[in-house]
Queue: 2 jobs
Job 1
Amino acid sequence: MYITEIFLQGFRNLSQLHIEPSEGINVIYGSNAQGKTNFLESLYFCAMGRSMRGKSDQQLIAFDAQESHIRLLVQTQNRRDKIDVHLKQNEKKGIAVNGLPVKRLGELFGTLYAVIFSPEDLSLVKDAPTERRRFLDMELCQLSRVYYYDLQQYYRILKQRNNLLKEIQKKPSLQETLFVWDGQMVEYGERIIAARRRFLVRLDEIAAEKLARLTGGRDSLQTLYKPNCEDGSFAERLHRNLERDILFGATQSGPHKDDISFLVNGREAKVYGSQGQQRTTALAARLAEIDLIREETGELPVLLLDDVFSELDESRQKYLLESIDGLQAFVTCTGIEDSVRKYISRDNLFYVENGTIIPQKENRH
Ligand SMILES: Nc1ncnc2c1ncn2[C@@H]1O[C@H](COP(=O)(O)OP(=O)(O)OP(=O)(O)O)[C@@H](O)[C@H]1O
């Protein structure tokens, strides 16, 4: 799939723009703090219905504006869709697909598949398990509305169960009502565990291939699912941990505690990997997502690469460019290095200055 038109109004520092990107690699370049990442953010928002940087909807509205609009036209193999996003200062966001309001975010997923890679992606390997669960959930939600629904239900029940655990500390007789939540939690939790396991088996295979290519075979990668509860054991774990859960006033076991382990050359990349190896690992996982989305949906996602090239050596840059050939990509950078330039036509260059994006094909003189 690819985006054919982008309209933005009052989105962070991008006051007004309309561009028609190419189907291939589009390079958005300019100095620091001009609006490059903001531009990628607007595209990501249309895929996932939320900020990629964890910003609130209101923080995305331009400082001097009351509201913000994004409109994208997306061409798939057999459809043409229109996504409209409307953010307002004091109201809930409005999202519509082909003019029909989206009531739950799950209805938006799949209209635009996007894979993003940014320098912050290092946190996928380096930081706490929350980052890795977020990666898993974002990907699985894009691929499956059922997963999104299960996840929503699971977290809703988890919140209610945790509230009840705190109540039980004050009034132990309430413990009798806990089984109502436990039954539902296990049902949704087991489904989440199974979906994550299936996803990671495939991700492991593809990411290993990508990493081997990125490093010219020097490094190997294994991506392992580290579930907090093995399949079928969630109910028993909840039961076993009950006293501890009551003591903490919080549920100590379940998929909300899952993790992923990235092993580079057999060792935990988080602990032993160099900065470069961690970065390449995160990149391999993102590149694997592209293949997975294609396998599952038959569509190639749109790739958003935020300031990634400056961090990679020339051979990795070359492999990255080759491996994204054939899909639509939006690549931001501060300058265009010669090694990248030879892959890009001038028609696909967009210069950003102070929130204005100028297509270079219209700027030949
Ligand atoms: N809500 C907002 N309204 C208007 N401007 C904003 C808003 N939020 C952030 N900005 C401005 O956007 C600019 C940053 O844009 P962005 O993050 O896209 O930069 P960038 O071009 O990607 O730069 P870098 O190369 O440094 O990453 C900053 O000048 C910031 O003040």
Job 2
Amino acid sequence: MSEQPSRPRTTGKPHRRPKKDPVRFLAFEVLRAVDERDAYANLVLPPLLRKARASGDFDGRDAALATELVYGTLRRQGTYDAIVAACVDRPLREVDPPVLDVLSLGVHQLLGTRIPTHAAVSASVELARVVLGDGRAKFVNAVLRKVAQHDFDAWTEKIAPPYEDDPEDHLALVHSHPRWIVSALWDSLGGGRAGIEQLLEADNERPEVTLVARPGRSTTDELMDEEAAVAGRWSPYAVRLTEGGEPGAIDAVRSGRAGVQDEGSQLVALALANAPLEGPDAHWLDGCAGPGGKAALLAALAAERGAVLLASEKQPHRARLVAKALDGNPGPYQVITADGTRPPWRPGSFDRVLMDVPCTGLGALRRRPEARWRRKTEDLDGFAPLQRGLLRTALESVRVGGVVGYATCSPHLAETRAVVADLLKQFPQTELVDARPLLPGVPSLGDGPDIQLWPHVHGTDAMYLAIIRRTG
Ligand SMILES: C[S@@+](CC[C@H](N)C(=O)[O-])C[C@H]1O[C@@H](n2cnc3c(N)ncnc32)[C@H](O)[C@@H]1O
């Protein structure tokens, strides 16, 4: 199937102006921004939705559909590209990117939603007429009619290599992840086919919105009054909004008494706070605090015990977000802008230290739908020295007998166990603490002593945490 340029009309048929469907048009605009400007969908989409709603173009259902079209299309991009490639007669790189975006949106409607086939095709062709012109709209029509001949499962069966021949390529295509990410996730998860398939599928699902009721500032009871709110699974401070909703409109969130925070992140802060300690427990450090989610929970927990949190962040604009998150904390705290690899504080000054280091974010792919296509294996090399440098600072900053939490929102072994193992070698007077009992009631945390959370097991981001004690 080839893409024809628009030809002059030769028939006497009256020309019908294409009708702009605001939902598809908005979804297309976001895909273009992601493609052309390397924009992040979760940053571009909300202001466009607000504008559309304010202009009266959109109601809540339209906003939900636009969100589903954007996120679903971006997450499944790998599979959809392969399906489109099977329906056109030239390499995909020779198809104009805006045409591909209209096609992907169409494929998602056909194979990833309950929108009826005729509606999915006609809405996509209409969108193509508006944004691409009549000639390319015909091309879109022809490709989507081919796509519509099979459902999602039949397509993947047709185009994916058999699992037995190449398990990783098979999973990468069927579950729309780059092969290197499938490989890395599987290395960390271990086990057979069922687990990795569940994990990859969990990455393709819309995550729930989870709130944290910051202790001493708000309560879960207060948040449970919100629509479709249910208690968290693991954190005593968590409330899940099963319908998503608009957390920014909730009074407790607006005033900072509560926040939006994945339960995995809450658990990391809680585990560090729960680690047993002999001697004083008065000085806590969060060495990579921006934008302040864990710092706000730690500061509230510290306040309950009469301890003080120092929240430090390298980027000034992120340090300001930390200050905003901590504003109103019931106990004392301090926020500073500092490079954690060259800390301004004295060695051994803290009883508890959190280092939630910059990482590839492979544990939060469900939140950042385009991230999996942007990340490259080389990124790991970029983060490696910084992760080691920051953990070194953490181990130097804690007093003898104190504890360090090393956390990532990536389960990649190069960012988790490899970093911890290297630093333990350099600091022989340290020991790993079994972190699993620090989260009572949370199952399947791994073989220990560190903790690995998983979206398909815990419903959280795939957060990693090692707790290390300085023994000398
Ligand atoms: C994974 S994020 C931390 C998330 C945070 N703990 C939370 O829960 O909101 C890592 C943070 O480390 C910061 N960072 C990067 N390099 C740093 C450095 N050398 N020293 C201190 N912070 C750094 C980044 O700007 C980013 O805000």
